[in-house]
């Protein structure tokens, strides 16, 4: 399956998903007085590397929140599968589920089919990480086609601090072609 990659500096799409514990959430909108958003797309319950990464996200959460960043983790899993995996994670951030194939494509994610022996019965998104600023623009885009290639959450937090501090007035990285057309 092909999908168009989201460009740095573009507006992150408004996508509403169910969250564990009830209700729905627009994954592009921060809450609780925070003004930036970190969206972490993970593969699902079948992926032990995702469980490890989500535990690392728990460890980085206080630093991210101190920078004004709200956090949500998202997968294509059903609510039951997501809830079962989160028993191993005990997340202190929101977890959304039910990401559809068209939504995966809208986010520019790689999509994989289940393979023999995998505990999954439908296509799923490969990892993605998006940092959205207070204007809704993508400050950081990281998309992978494999579960073992993900950015360090410690470095993501440091990078956000740098973007929000000394580099707050700099253009968003990776927007050269767009800035040259103005």
UniProtKB/TrEMBL annotation:
It comes from Roseibium salinum. Residues 6-165 form the Thioredoxin domain. This is Peroxiredoxin-like family protein. It holds the Pfam family AhpC-TSA. InterPro entries: AhpC/TSA (IPR000866), Thioredoxin-like_sf (IPR036249), Thioredoxin_domain (IPR013766). PROSITE patterns: THIOREDOXIN_2. Coiled coil: none annotated.
């Amino acid at each position: 399956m092909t999908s168009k990659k989201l460009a740095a500096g573009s507006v992150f799409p408004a996508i509403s998903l169910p969250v564990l514990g009830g209700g729905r959430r627009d994954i592009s909108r921060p809450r609780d007085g925070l003004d930036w958003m970190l969206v972490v797309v993970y593969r699902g319950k079948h992926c032990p590397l995702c469980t490890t990464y989500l535990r690392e996200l728990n460890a980085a959460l206080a630093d991210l929140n101190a920078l004004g960043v709200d956090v949500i983790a998202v997968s294509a899993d059903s609510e039951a599968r997501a809830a079962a995996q989160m028993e191993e994670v005990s997340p202190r951030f929101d977890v959304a589920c039910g990401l559809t194939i068209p939504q995966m494509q809208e986010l520019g994610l790689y999509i994989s089919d289940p393979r023999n022996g995998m505990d999954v019965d439908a296509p799923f998104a490969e990892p993605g990480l998006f940092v959205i600023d207070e204007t809704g623009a993508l400050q950081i885009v990281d998309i992978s086609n494999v579960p073992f290639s993900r950015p360090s959450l410690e470095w993501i937090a440091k990078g956000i601090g740098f973007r929000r501090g000394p580099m707050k007035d700099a253009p968003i990285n990776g927007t050269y072609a767009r800035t040259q057309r103005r």
